[in-house]
């Protein structure tokens, strides 16, 4: 039997549905939007579920009516025009009426939801500035009381649990969008403009975020993590991040640092050293982060060295060049990078 493409597609999707759903349960990268972990995301999640239920109901009602029409087939007769005399107009009125009502209800529900997530119930406990770059995120923590505690990090945002946090969103190049499905809806980062949103996590955990505005070839590799911690752990993390990198004591580490100053410092900053480049992630505490290159690699010493030598193969077109290093240089650079924790 020959099947049309559409028939094949239908069969395929029917076949795959039962297999996809358990998989989707295992570790859905962004399936998280079906669950929420904080008050900025909960109303949106309910809206999502509600609209899904409504859509499923519409499909079910149409299927039942269609099946009924097929079963109660009229005896073959000359086709009659649909009109007042022919009857059936009440179905049109009912259909249009019910659809209009359903659309009005969903419009109202959407407006109520937008209002519910517009502002946190309490004033935000802190503000974090996030600047999107092709293809990574710069994260800045200010401190009004003590400007010396201002620091910069990348691709990993830490927040205390249970506290609303204001996010100030900027872009250094093109339009990006900031989305942590578990914690809030998405907001665009637009060059020359500051957009704000807020996030809050009610339970400790690592929540995955992702750029959701196509921004170039490595858009998919522009992820980040939000790490929600109890206040004491957050404070400890912050104290570590504020600190400058310690000066190398070991001979090999010193060689590594010199290499870094020659080849990497033009783009990267390491606070406490002469490296003060601003167009790439701050590496002062790169070892404290879970991922490298915006969620592209897990952060291990092997991946770190691999990244430095093969950035262009791992993340083609990224603004980080690949470096050719001999064995000694690689070992020295590795030893120095290992001190940045
Ligand atoms: C021309 C500028 C430039 C130079 C020079 C450069 N980098 Fe980078 N580097 C970048 C950019 C841009 C990124 C972000 C890439 C991305 O994720 O898309 C990056 C990312 C990284 C990261 C990952 C940081 C993170 O938190 O994800 C490490 C580690 C790193 N570079 C190390 C080095 C080392 C070591 C050198 C010198 C051998 C070096 N870089 C030289 C631009 C540069
Ligand atoms: Cu993007």
Poorly predicted runs: 1-26
Output the structural class: alpha+beta
Total E-strand runs: 12
What is the helix fraction of residues, given as a range? 25-40%
Q: How would you state the average pLDDT, rounded?
A: 88
Q: What molecules are bound to this protein?
A: heme C, copper (II) ion
In short:
The protein has 341 residues and is an alpha+beta fold.
Description:
The protein contains seven helices and twelve strands. The protein has 341 residues and is an alpha+beta fold. The protein folds into two domains: 28-65 and 89-243, Cupredoxins -  blue copper proteins (Immunoglobulin-like, Sandwich), CATH 2.60.40; 251-338, Cupredoxins -  blue copper proteins (Immunoglobulin-like, Sandwich), CATH 2.60.40.420. The chain has a five-stranded mixed sheet with strand order 3-2-1-5-8, with no helix packed on it. Strands 4-10-9-6-7 form a five-stranded mixed sheet. A two-stranded antiparallel sheet has the order 11-12. Strand 11 and strand 12 (297-298) form a beta hairpin. It starts with a helix and ends with a helix. The site of copper (II) ion has 7 residues, from loops.
């Amino acid at each position: 039997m020959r099947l049309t493409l559409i028939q094949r597609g239908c069969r395929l999707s029917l076949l795959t549905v039962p297999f996809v759903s358990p998989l989707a349960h295992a570790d859905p990268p962004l399936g998280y939007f079906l669950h929420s972990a904080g008050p900025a995301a909960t109303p949106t999640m309910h809206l999502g579920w509600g609209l899904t239920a409504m859509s499923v109901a519409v499909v079910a009602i149409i299927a039942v009516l269609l099946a009924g029409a097929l079963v109660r087939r009229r005896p073959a007769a000359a086709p009659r025009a649909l009109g007042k005399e022919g009857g059936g107009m009440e179905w049109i009125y009912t259909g249009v009426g019910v659809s209009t009502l359903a659309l009005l209800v969903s419009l109202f529900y959407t407006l109520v939801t937008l209002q519910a997530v517009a502002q946190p119930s309490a004033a935000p406990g802190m503000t974090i500035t996030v600047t999107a770059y092709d293809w990574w995120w710069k994260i800045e923590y200010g401190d009004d009381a003590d400007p010396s505690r201002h620091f910069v990090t990348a691709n990993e945002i830490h927040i205390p649990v249970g506290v609303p946090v204001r996010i100030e969103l900027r872009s250094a190049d093109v339009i990006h969008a900031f989305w942590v499905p578990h914690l809030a809806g998405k907001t665009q980062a637009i060059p020359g403009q500051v957009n704000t949103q807020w996030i809050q996590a009610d339970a400790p955990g690592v929540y995955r975020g992702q750029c959701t505005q196509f921004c170039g070839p490595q858009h998919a590799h522009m992820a980040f993590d939000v790490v929600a911690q109890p206040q004491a752990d957050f404070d400890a993390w912050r104290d570590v991040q504020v600190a400058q990198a310690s000066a190398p004591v070991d001979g090999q580490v010193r060689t590594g640092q010199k290499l870094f100053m020659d080849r990497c410092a033009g783009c990267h900053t390491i606070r406490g050293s002469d490296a003060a480049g601003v167009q790439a992630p701050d590496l002062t505490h790169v070892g404290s982060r879970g991922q490298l290159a915006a969620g592209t690699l897990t952060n291990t010493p092997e991946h770190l060295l691999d990244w430095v030598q093969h950035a262009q193969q791992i993340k083609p077109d990224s603004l980080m060049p690949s470096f050719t290093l001999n064995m000694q240089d690689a070992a020295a650079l590795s030893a120095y990078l290992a001190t940045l924790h």
